[in-house]
Specification:
alpha+beta; Acetylcholine Binding Protein, Chain: A; 3 domains; five-stranded mixed sheet; four-stranded antiparallel sheet; 15 strands; 38% helix; 28% strand; transmembrane helix; DUF4436 domain-containing protein; transmembrane; DUF4436; membrane
Length: 298
């Protein structure tokens, strides 16, 4: 019976242990990469926070619906102390107004009433046919005001904190250059750019499936060509396998994360080729099998 110290010192055990360590390291690295790749945070302001008291608008991108070309953003407002009622950061002492220029919405906050969460819907602009390399953009334009009179209102300085706690998409935030010289930027954020793209982990999975389907098509073509060149007999099991493969390929294609309907870039890179080559090989071998079985030779 082999002793435990001798087992630990064997080359086979050391090789298995090394493989387990590599697999565990790859697993931990992939999880860390996924978390780092998914989340993004940014803070914007156009005012000097050391000179002006600012309110904070926390913008969280809650959902991204590519098919509908829209992103839902949840806004939470934390008021500067001078605007609060009884020092409650969510309760204004006077009537305030929040305008979302991007979604053409206006929200009025009554005095002495807590401000609830505000949900706005931003339109996304982009080309979904470039999947899995498709990117989309949306503008977040906000205005925060307090009422001066019936016809006048004063802008409230704000700091905009943006966060993207969603999976499947990498959401990044940028300071958009405003070319309109008449826009007053002295009271905080006027226009910010949200860019939405597939996460690198999702792109990796999609590319892996693309390469796999393309390889399947090439392998099937090589097998068919070898069968015809060497005049090998085609068995009925091979034809059943090709027919089943034709049924399975659409399911394999749809395992790509968040893939839209047929006709995107990934389909032209592999899926259409794999289906076409498999179907052509199936029909060719079916005819070959029919005549070979009938005549005993070609």
């Amino acid at each position: 019976m082999t002793s435990i110290p001798r087992l630990f010192s064997s080359n086979r055990f050391q090789l298995i242990f090394l493989l387990l360590v590599i697999i565990a390291g790859c697993y931990l690295a992939s999880v860390r990469f996924f978390i780092k790749d998914k989340l993004d945070f940014a803070s914007f302001t156009d005012v000097d926070v050391s000179q002006k008291k600012t309110s904070v608008v926390q913008a969280d991108v809650r959902t991204v619906e590519i098919d509908k070309r829209e992103a839902k953003v949840e806004l939470r407002i934390y008021l500067a102390d001078e605007l609060t009622f009884n020092h409650r950061i969510d309760t204004p002492a006077e009537e305030l107004r929040l305008i979302s220029y991007s979604s053409n919405e206006e929200f009025i906050f009554k005095p002495k009433q807590p401000i609830r969460k505000v949900l706005i819907t931003l339109p996304l602009v982009g080309t979904i046919t470039d999947y899995p390399f498709d990117t989309f953009q949306a503008n977040l334009s906000l205005g925060f005001f307090k009422k001066q009179s019936e016809i006048e209102q004063e802008g409230i300085p704000i700091v905009l904190n943006m966060n993207s706690p969603i999976a499947s998409y990498k959401v990044e935030f940028y300071d958009k250059q405003v070319e309109d010289f008449w826009i007053d930027r002295t009271y905080g954020n006027v226009d910010r750019l949200i860019q939405v793209a597939r996460t690198k982990s999702n792109r990796f999975v999609s590319l892996f499936i693309i390469v796999f389907m393309f390889a399947v098509g090439i392998v099937i073509l090589v097998i068919t060509a070898r069968t015809l060149l060497y005049q090998k007999e085609v068995h009925i099991e091979e034809l059943i396998f090709l027919a089943a493969l034709l049924i399975a390929l659409p399911a394999v294609r749809n395992t790509q994360p968040g893939i839209p309907n047929s006709g995107v870039l990934s389909d032209y890179l592999s899926y259409f080729w794999a289906v076409g080559l498999t179907a052509l090989s199936f029909l060719t071998l079916l005819l070959y099998h029919h005549f070979f079985k009938k005549d005993g030779r070609m």
